[in-house]
């Protein structure tokens, strides 16, 4: 049998010549790893099914991530979408040994990490704007008090700028997590990971066909790790079974469940001290030292269920799709906070936390999508969504305690007075409902107009009850509505070069931070973007470039846990990125982003200042090479290296202290060892932060400065069978 592989027009073609007169051609999408639907089973029409061809090492399709959607709308190749989009495939997380999502954010232009409530939540900044509940999971806006377990990730999609048919979001963009779905192609994967600081993590991933109509996937992971920070242990358990049914008429139903338990301390990092004239200096007692020990325990447990259904409606390629989603999360935590630093360096701290924090989210969507010929060819997705979220908890705050010093916080031990602390019961409720539409209209064979809109109805309320004196305060905004809209033109100037221009606006109503009953006006923003997308080397190399101008009004910022209205914000800049595999085995990703962001405020102390945690520029390069020649003694060996640079950032809106710039270098190597037909073991070794750069990740206020990880050696072993 002769096997030939070639690429043409964005499609990978595998031709197997069985004899001189017989050939079988199999066409695979160049972005097979970013699946939005399960692989189809055999159709029983007599098609020839070949045994899998064993290829030692990484399958190239696991790096290719070109198709994407968000919110379940139209699925497009990112070369055809008039906006900047970055896609992170699962394979990249494995090659970089990424144990959390924030480890890969920094490899993308104008994306940096934020402090994330002491490192316990997903938190990032895109194009100068901090996300507000803008982590999406399979198109559902998901608020969570915990981290997302990487074991569930098929790909991460970073959408730059507003997505108007989504509705509520910050104008910088959003992150959408596509989770792993069942496949009719059998694959089993298990891995163990460890590092010098005490990481101990394991994961299993199994998928395959149960019959011609049923397929399954089971993903699970467990972790019991220590970190470089003193008295910091992370324990996680994750389990996610998923089942898909596919009917003879291509109707599908997918049912999924996730259980996640996340135990980790809320780590406030280091602090700053006053140096006079309104400026502050970041304390440096050592990267491992914590100011919030010994009371820093947190336990979060969540259950999540979702059902996705798709039914053809009988004409052309139209489908009726529905989604039901429900999650329930309960968290208990206790930690200590630095409140101030006396002139002699003595700390003032207190014990506080939250008991019985319950967060539930219900979401449903019904939509129709397909093609029409209304004088011009168009594809359309339209429907309606409803989301309801409720959160309640008991917040307790102890008395101020004086003791310990900036350089030696453990010299005085705090007293746990949580039993006698002041306590308040807090409840926040939010609901939104909105019809939406998105359409791609082919004005010319080389010119496509993309349009989208959403009419959102929303309401919210917060109630705080003092459990000691029974006093009650409340705040609410009644049902209101907002229309958000977008339009973009994509012109295919040549076969490999496309140019686009787009406009989008967005808004986000106040979400009552921490149960604060103050009612702020809704944040509203808009973006203009102009860009280009270029395919080179027979689509082996993909280049993108974009220039953007964003404006937002009524920006609310949280400083040391207190929400405040800072005014408006502008953000102008550009970004360029390159991704591809120039030759067999070689994969590369490079990016550079620049943003000129500033506050527009009536407060003279911050007007014109760059927003907190926002650098003017960041840059990154990741390159890996895997030897693929079966005749080579190095066959199966892979080498990877990455460099990320983040510019200087300010730790608060007043620019009283700086976080500085940093450059991180990571190195990794892996080797695939075949252990029989369709089986191989992979060994990983590497080092993160090779130069042992001492850096600060982000600031949540003058007493909440996150500390970056030191040089870390790691290893791992995985098996595919």
Description:
This protein is mostly beta strands and 721 residues long. It has 3 helices and 40 strands. The protein has a 22-stranded antiparallel barrel. It has a 5-stranded mixed β-sheet with strand order 6-12-13-10-11. Strand 1 (2-8) and strand 2 (11-17) form a beta hairpin. The longest helix has 6 residues, at 90-95. The radius of gyration is 26 Å and the shape is globular.
How many individual β-strands?
40
Helix fraction, binned, reads under 10%
Average pLDDT score: 88
Q: What is the rounded Rg?
A: 26 Å
Biggest sheet features: 22 strands, antiparallel, barrel
Cα-to-Cα separation, first versus last residue: 24 Å
Strand content: over 45%
Please state the overall shape, judged from the principal axes of the Cα atoms.
globular
Query: What are the segments in which pLDDT stays under 50 over at least 5 consecutive residues?
Result: 1-54
Family: Belongs to the TonB-dependent receptor family.
Membrane topology: Multi-pass membrane protein
Protein name: TonB-dependent siderophore receptor
Organism: Azospirillum oleiclasticum
Please write out the topology.
Layout: E1 2-8, E2 11-17, E3 23-29, E4 67-68, E5 76-77, E6 85-89, H1 90-95, H2 102-105, E7 111-113, H3 116-119, E8 124-126, E9 129-130, E10 135-137, E11 140-141, E12 153-160, E13 173-179, E14 187-195, E15 200-209, E16 214-226, E17 233-246, E18 252-263, E19 272-276, E20 279-282, E21 297-312, E22 319-341, E23 346-373, E24 377-397, E25 401-405, E26 422-444, E27 447-466, E28 472-492, E29 497-508, E30 523-536, E31 541-559, E32 562-583, E33 586-600, E34 617-626, E35 637-646, E36 662-674, E37 680-688, E38 696-699, E39 705-707, E40 712-720
Parallel strand pairs: 10-13
Antiparallel strand pairs: 1-2, 2-3, 4-5, 6-12, 7-8, 8-9, 10-11, 12-13, 14-15, 14-40, 15-16, 16-17, 17-18, 18-21, 19-20, 21-22, 22-23, 23-24, 23-25, 24-26, 26-27, 27-28, 28-29, 29-30, 30-31, 31-32, 32-33, 33-34, 34-35, 35-36, 36-37, 37-40, 38-39
